[in-house]
Design brief:
The protein has 225 residues and is an alpha/beta fold. It has helices at 20-23, 27-41, 60-67, 82-91, 121-124, 144-155, 193-202, and strands at residues 51-55, 74-79, 97-101, 130-135, 158-170, 177-179, 189-191, 206-211, 219-224. The protein has one domain (20-57, 100-224): Rossmann fold. The longest helix has 15 residues, at 27-41. The structure holds S-adenosylmethionine.
Length: 225
Amino acid sequence: MRHPSGQFRYIDPPFQFNSPEIAAYPVEVTGFHLLSSLRQRLGWNSLAGKRLLDFGCGVRFARTIHNLDIDIGSYTGIDVNAQAIAWLANNADDPRFRFEHFDMRNEMYNAGGETVEDRNVLQRRGFSEFDAACMFSVITHQAPADAQTIFALLYETVRARGQLYFTAFTDDGVDQYREGDPALPCILSTYHPEYLRQLVSSAGWNVEEIYPKTNMQQTAFVCRK
Ligand SMILES: C[S@@+](CC[C@H](N)C(=O)[O-])C[C@H]1O[C@@H](n2cnc3c(N)ncnc32)[C@H](O)[C@@H]1O
C-alpha cells in the first residue's frame, strides 16, 4: 500500500490456506482474479466505496488489496485462525481494514471451537451494513448445519438488498451432502446444488445466480437479501 510518506510497504503473511494447484500461482494473481470475478458477478463496476465482509478470510484478499493498493471502501476479515487474524491486525495497518477472530467450531479448522446458535452474534459485534459478504473455499469445508448457521449469520450483517457470494463443492450425483473422505471430516464437503440452495434460502437469502466451476474457483452462488 502507498504510505502517505510515499514509501511502498509490502506485506507477506506467513500463512498458506489454498490448495496446491491454486498456491502454484502468486497470491496476488489469484487474489486479483477472484476479486475481479466477485466484483463482476455482484454487478459492481468497481470495488471503490464498497464495504466487503470476507468470512473465513485467510490472508489472500488482505494481502492482495494491500500490496496492489486496490481501491475499496472497506475490507473486513473474519476467521477461526487466531494467529492469522492477529498477524493481519498487526501488520496490515490500513484504516479500511478490520480483522476479527471468531471461535466457531469446525471439524477441520477449529475442532475445539464453540457451537454457534445465535444468528445475530456477528451483528452484535458490530458487523453490519456491508454491501456484500463473501466466502471463498469456506462452505467447501462445512457440514450442512454449520453452513446453514453461517448463511444466517451473514444475512444479518449485510444492508437491505445486500449480497452474498460463496463457492462450494457441488455434484448433481450427490444425495444432498457427502464428505469426500469420512476419515477427514470437512476436508471435501460436497453438496447437491439444489440442497445447498435450500440451505441458503432457509436463512433468508434469494439465490440469484449459480456459476459453474472454473479452473480458479468452485461453483459460485450469488445471493441477495
Ligand atoms: C481454504 S481456506 C480459504 C481462505 C480464504 N477464503 C481464501 O480463499 O484464500 C478456509 C478458511 O476458512 C476458515 N474457516 C473455516 N471455518 C470457519 C468458520 N466457521 N468461521 C470462520 N472461519 C472459518 C479457515 O480458518 C480458513 O482460513
